[in-house]
Amino acid sequence: MPQRNEDDRSKKIVFVSNCLLNASNKVQEFARYPGMFTQVVQTLDKYGVGLIQMPCPEVLHMGCQRWWHSRNLYDNAGFRHFCRTLAEQMVDYMENYAIVGYDVVAVLVCDGSPTCGLTVSSYYENGGGHPAEPVRSLRKQPGIYTEELLKAIQARGIQAPPMYGLLMDDREKTNEQIIAEFDEFIRGRLS
User: Fold this and answer.
1) Where are the beta strands (DSSP E) in 2-135?
2) Per-residue pLDDT reduced to its tens digit, 89-126
3) Which CA distances in Å does 179 have to 85, 104, 114?
4) What's the total number of domains in the chain?
5) CA–CA distance, 117 with 115 (Å, rounded to integer)
6) Residue 154's Cα: distance from chain center in Å?
7) Is 31 inside any structural domain?
8) Is residue 7 part of a domain?
9) 83 in a structural domain
10) pTM of the model
11) Would residue 4 count as lying in a domain?
12) Which residues form the domain of 77?
């Protein structure tokens, strides 16, 4: 049987948190760009890397008009099950790419997010009970969705791609600084 001709695809893919490509999915007051973080797309394009936009568990679960939530408020059996279901779909993609020898270069998530954080996620000290002005902090732990994604990858026996969290909640850094660090990470992954 004749083989198909090769084409120009790089066979390199990055999975990207939804809100990095669609600011409308961010909680009100948290978007740092009008539509999408275009520098993420430009960086991946510069290196010939395709992308998969992962679903946003928060929007699918609570909608676009949700209040700020934190990891401790989302950390319940129902939301974890929901995140696990979404994560399994992403692992299906990863497994299909592995079958044909494509390289999942990385998973890019949004650090500080209660669901998609990698190294830090938001935590409300006074969560639960009557709503009050939130006392928000960042804890050194992944978000709920990121945890479930890593568990799903491990359960399938797939090599976990490197994870990278854009620390979007660090107001001390500019978008340009955040992208420069991401560019360095991607360049390192491809060399």
Assistant:
1) 12-16, 50-53, 103-111, 121-124
2) 999 999 999 999 999 999 999 998 999 999 999 888 77
3) 30, 20, 21
4) 1
5) 6
6) 17
7) yes
8) no
9) yes
10) 0.89
11) no
12) 12-190
